[in-house]
Design a protein that fits this description.
This protein is α/β, with parallel strands linked by helices. Strands 3-2-1-4-5-6 form a six-stranded parallel sheet. The relative contact order is 0.19. 1,6-di-O-phosphono-beta-D-glucopyranose (B16) binds next to helix 3.
Length: about 210
């Protein structure tokens, strides 16, 4: 019986996945490192430094740890500029209907995001007081596909993993949910993931209220 729903943030509740792409693309172009949307798909749900490691697979020269830290910081500065423009209009279709339906049924809701920018994003889109718990990249040491962020969210909610459903757009996030002993609904880029317990094109098409019945 599902007692709690843990939402991924980027690509599930808000359109920030494109902001990540544009910020990484700007940094990669400056460094003359090939980077496109297909490589970007591998970065979904993956931490900032792990994302950089994937991008650097295409680099033609080695970078020192200090240079890597500088590149990640530069990308984050570009990203923070972009998310500074977010408004509640950037909440993805169907998200608020589902959040409100779950709350009306007494289902606990949480955020489980790899992003260290989670607090600022939630504030920009007006959802900083909406969730019963927020677990994000600032509180964990292992990012998805490790289940740490979702297990933390469940603990903060006071729920057992088996009582939780995770909503994810990343294959790494589906794997993390299942490894944590939770059910997973794949949407967006994870909507075809055969491992997901449930699949839907997006939140507007998902009958989450039925899934948690
Ligand atoms: P930041 P999610 C993830 O958020 C993104 O999908 C991923 O692309 C990003 O690298 C990661 O957050 C870290 O983000 O650089 O802001 O700390 O999908 O888990 O909500
Ligand atoms: Mg995501």
């Amino acid at each position: 019986m599902i007692q709690a729903v843990i939402f991924d943030l980027d690509g599930v509740l808000v359109t920030t996945d494109d902001c990540h792409y544009r910020a990484w693309k700007r940094m990669a172009d400056e460094e003359h490192i090939p980077f496109d949307r297909s490589i970007n798909e591998r970065l979904r749900g993956v931490s900032r430094m792990d994302s950089l490691a994937i991008i650097l697979e295409k680099a033609t020269k080695p970078y020192t740890e200090a240079e890597k830290a500088g590149m990640a910081a530069r990308k984050n500065a570009y990203y923070v500029d972009l998310i500074g423009l977010l408004t509640p209009k950037d909440i993805l279709p169907g998200a608020m209907d589902i959040v409100n339906a779950l709350k009306a049924r007494g289902i606990r809701i949480a955020i489980g995001s790899s992003s260290r920018n989670t607090p600022i994003i939630l504030q920009r889109i007006g959802l900083d007081k909406t969730f019963d718990a927020v677990a994000d990249g600032n509180q964990i040491t292992h990012s998805k596909p490790d289940p740490e962020v979702f297990l933390l969210a469940a603990r903060l909610l006071g729920c057992e993993p088996a009582e939780c459903l995770v909503v994810e757009d990343a294959d790494a996030g589906i794997e993390a949910a299942l490894r944590g002993g939770m059910k997973a609904l794949g949407v967006g880029s994870a909507s075809k993931n055969p491992l997901a317990t449930y699949r839907a094109e997006n939140l507007a098409a998902a009958n989450l209220a039925e899934i948690v019945q």
